[in-house]
Design brief:
Blueprint: E1 30-35, H1 39-45, E2 52-56, H2 66-79, E3 86-90, H3 99-110, E4 116-119, H4 125-142, E5 150-155, H5 158-162, H6 164-168, E6 174-179, H7 181-187, H8 208-220, E7 224-227, H9 236-249, E8 253-256, H10 259-268, H11 273-289, E9 300-302, E10 305-307, H12 309-324
Helix pairs in contact: 2-3, 3-4, 9-10, 11-12
């Protein structure tokens, strides 16, 4: 999937938010949740091999702990070593009285060491626009680069899912659409207490429609799609199974709640070595066969397989995921003998 610079847009009723040319498609195989009120966990998270770490001010923080947690997060963003990780803060949703102060305190205090703000329980495009406008005001006030900080939108109820296409288009800051299974299951009265597992009595995949609708909205707008958490943190096999479902559909990553889930997520959302090598070979073979030296052909054979432009597009996806994961090739393309 190729990133395209988003054009400057004018949110309804607001002023233009002209995004900086930043990478909106960062690796997010594993998105580690860390309570913003727990310094010990914030310290430990820096050494874990998660692609993304989000410091949480919402569900992981008790109401009385939220004000102090904002300042704790600012301190750790500014003083911690988050090398190689996407740095995200999840604020509280707009229906609470905490949201604006979460954003102002964190972004004014550590905006230059922050990549994205995650907005939970998004129900409409207007809620994303409101966050975009607030971020723009803070960036201009503080002298930060306008538009650099991205937005991650979390879909957690039926209203949000119904509006997911509009949400995905609401701001050029949007980087990901995230499925929040626990709140979503409660919002539709799903008969299950095990977050992420299939409800009893339903013979098919109860999440297929939800995941596919989120995925389509994300892909139609060059965004990433991220699956939510699996709460049975000691059941790594269960985590792999649920993560594998999302990965098979095309999701880019999944939340992890425990260090033991990080390695599994990184593995599940990376291509196998065999698939990665094969994708790179397809790209090399197609580049050669369409060249002057290769005869300017629109299709060619790679072993027993015919490849063409559609093959190249599919290979780009797998090769891109492998490169983002830091994989190295173990095979080399050989020009076929005449």
């Amino acid at each position: 999937m190729t990133a395209h610079p988003a054009p400057a847009t004018t949110p309804a009723g607001g002023t233009p938010s002209d995004p900086a040319p930043v990478n909106r498609l960062r690796p997010r195989r594993s998105c580690l949740a860390v309570p913003g009120s727990n310094p010990r966990f914030l310290e430990k998270a820096q050494g874990l091999p998660a692609d993304q770490v989000f410091l949480d001010l919402e569900d992981a923080c008790a109401p009385l702990a939220k004000p102090e947690a904002r300042h704790t997060i600012v301190k750790f963003l500014n003083e911690g070593d988050w090398t190689g990780k996407t740095r995200v803060v999840r604020v509280n949703d707009w229906t609470t009285h905490w949201t604006y102060r979460d954003v102002v305190t964190v972004v004014e205090g550590a905006g230059q060491n922050l990549d994205c703000i995650m907005l939970p329980k998004v129900q409409s495009a207007e809620q994303v626009v409101a966050l975009d406008l607030l971020l723009t005001q803070i960036e201009k006030t503080m002298g930060f680069e306008v538009g650099r900080i991205g937005i991650e939108a979390q879909i957690e109820n039926a209203q949000g899912l119904n509006n997911v296409n509009a949400i995905a288009q609401a701001s050029p800051r949007i980087e990901t659409i995230i499925f929040g299974p626990a709140d979503f299951m409660a919002s539709i009265n799903m008969k299950s207490l095990v977050v992420g597992e299939q409800p009893p009595g339903y013979p098919a995949d109860a999440y297929h429609y939800i995941l596919m609708k989120i995925l389509m909205a994300a892909r139609a707008n060059d965004l990433q799609a991220i699956d939510g958490p699996y709460l049975q943190i000691k059941n790594v096999d269960g985590f792999r199974a649920v993560a594998g479902r999302a990965a098979a559909l095309g999701f880019d990553g999944k939340w992890v709640l425990h260090p033991g889930q990080v390695e599994a997520a990184n593995e599940v959302f990376s291509p196998s070595q065999e698939d990665y090598d094969h994708a790179e070979l397809i790209l090399d073979a197609y580049e050669w066969c369409t060249s002057e030296a290769g005869g300017k052909k629109g299709s060619a054979m790679l072993g027993d397989e015919m490849i063409d432009e559609a093959s190249r597009k599919m290979a780009l996806v797998i090769a891109g995921k492998g490169r983002a994961a830091g994989m190295q090739r173990t095979s080399k393309f050989e020009i076929p003998e005449a």
